[in-house]
Structure formats: C-alpha cells, structure tokens
Amino acid sequence: MKLIAILIVFITISFIDLPKLLKHNNRRKYIAVYFTLVLLGFFLSVLQIFVEFIPGPMLILRNFIKKI
C-alpha cells in the first residue's frame, strides 16, 4: 500500500513538472537530469519502506575512517 502511494506521488510530481521542462531549448538534457533525480528519490523512498535501517553517509564515512 505504501509503495502504491509513493508511486502515485512521484507520478503526480512528474506530470506537474513535465510541461515546464518541455518549454526549454535543451529539453532532452533537462528531462534526463530531472528523471534521473526523480528515479533516485523514488529508489531511496522504496528502500526506506522495505529496509529497516539505511545507514547515513556519516556512518559509512566514520566506519571507513576507523578502518584506516
């Protein structure tokens, strides 16, 4: 159920922003960058639902520094 809600939210946001992106001269580049960021956000949202603990970047960096 949460996955469907997130999917609806991301699709709605994309449809709201798509007409604005189509007005630019470099629309291919803008659309590619936009959808890359949207898909990254969608992927992180889905991970946050299905995985109990997602380590933050500072935790990963701290563990890396401890190993050095």
TrEMBL record:
Protein name, as recorded: Uncharacterized protein
